[in-house]
Amino acid sequence: LVLPAQAQFYVLSDLGSLIATSYSVPHGLSENADVVGYSYAGLGAHAFIWTAEGGMQDLGTLDGGNSYGKAIGASGAVVGYASAAGAEHAFVWTSAGGLQDLGTLGGANSYAKGVNAQVRVVGQADTASGAVGFVWSLEEGMQDLNGLIPDPGGWTVEAGLGINDQGVIVAMGRNVFGRVHALLLVPVLDE
């Protein structure tokens, strides 16, 4: 799908829903105009991916409950969260591997919010002391972003919200005075 840089008019496309009498809610859009979100399918919400070639595809659930698609990366990986044994867990979905539970950082819940082309995922996870931002990769699993910042300057990262293909993360954090600000986390390369 090739679109002009600036349009005067738009063509509306109904992406549908997973079942005819239901509705759908989009949450993420790729550069290729693939869409992710959720749609009600029977008794619960199910994450979906919509492509121009394949239409709307149900991504399933972790435990038969609900799932919600939140973002899509350039590789086509979808992230979000789904019910898992009475809690909610972050997931990543790929066409090759299906829906994968990313686990938690010791607390009950986790929520994936962003993914890049290398399938590095960011989000928020509960710990025994509160919610923190995380980064996840297949090689390293889920890591607390706060443990990856040598000098946080009085900030606690409470949620990773997006990650680009260079590994730069946009996050939400709280300082020692309780103020919430947008934060940018730039990776430091090994020398």
Q: What would you note in describing this structure?
A:
This protein is mainly beta. The chain is built from no helices and 15 strands. The chain has strands at 24-29, 35-41, 44-51, 55-58, 67-72, 78-84, 87-94, 98-101, 110-115, 121-127, 130-137, 141-144, 155-163, 169-175, 180-185. It has a 4-stranded antiparallel sheet, with no helix packed on it. The protein is globular and about 50 Å long. The model has no long low-confidence stretch (mean pLDDT 94).
Alpha-beta classification: mainly beta
For the residues shown, what is the average pLDDT? Answer: 94
Query: Taking strands numbered 1, 2, ... along the chain, how are they ordered across the largest sheet?
Result: 1-2-3-4
Rg over C-alpha atoms, rounded to the nearest angstrom: 17 Å
Topology, number of strands = 15
How helical, in percent, are the residues? under 10%
- Sheet with the most strands, sense and barrel status: 4 strands, antiparallel
Report the β-strand fraction as a percent range.
over 45%
User: Uncertain spans, ≥5 residues at pLDDT below 50?
Assistant: none
Total count of helical runs of at least 4 residues: 0
**Outline type:** globular
Q: How would you summarize the topology of this molecule?
A:
Layout: E1 24-29, E2 35-41, E3 44-51, E4 55-58, E5 67-72, E6 78-84, E7 87-94, E8 98-101, E9 110-115, E10 121-127, E11 130-137, E12 141-144, E13 155-163, E14 169-175, E15 180-185
Antiparallel strand pairs: 1-2, 2-3, 3-4, 5-6, 6-7, 7-8, 9-10, 10-11, 11-12, 13-14, 14-15
